[in-house]
Amino acid sequence: MRDLPVVGTPPAERADAAHNRRRIVRAAAELIATRGPEAVSMDEVARAAGVGVGTVYRRFGDRARLVYAVIDDREREFQTAFIHGPPPLGPGSPAPDRLRAFLHALADRTDAQADLLFMAESGPSDARFRDGSYGLYHRHVAMLLAQVRPGADTAYLADALLAPFAANLFLFQRRTRGMTLDRVKTGLDALADALIVRTL
């Protein structure tokens, strides 16, 4: 299999600039996790990161772009894990095992940043699908499905398996319906198994 590219990899930076970026993003992530994105200011992030507020503005421009940087940082880690990481999430396991592992890992990844992902998906109606990450997920799931369901409409089935990860639905299930993350994963397993068992 040809490796998929990790989406959103930042351009090369000077060592000091890269160091500052990591400090700022880490500080923003910690503040967002404890107080929520709407309560976080650029001044607070600068203080928490130990840099001047001008450095934060020069690097990110505004709070919205800083929030997206926090999303992107976690996203790159996730993509690296399923493209290059150890099995069963990464290469080396049978397609059914990789598919289940991917769905579980994506549930964890979505749960960790559901509010931020909701903000990112709250633009145009197709905002979720324009994001480069969705295209990568879709290609990955379609590739695994092609191995377990040769000849199936894997483009459609991949969309169907990814639909539960829309942030608004995910948040509704977790917070309004009160579903645990384990229950969500069990449901995802049932969806995947309905596609997989036909070939076993």
Automatic annotation (TrEMBL):
InterPro entries assigned: Homeodomain-like_sf (IPR009057), HTH-type_TetR-like_transc_reg (IPR050109), HTH_TetR (IPR001647)
Signal peptide: none
Record keyword NADP present: no
Residues in HTH tetR-type domain copies: 18-78
Keyword set includes DNA-binding: yes
Database matches in Pfam families: TetR_N
DNA-binding region: 41-60
Keywords attached to this entry: DNA-binding
Stated name of the protein: HTH tetR-type domain-containing protein
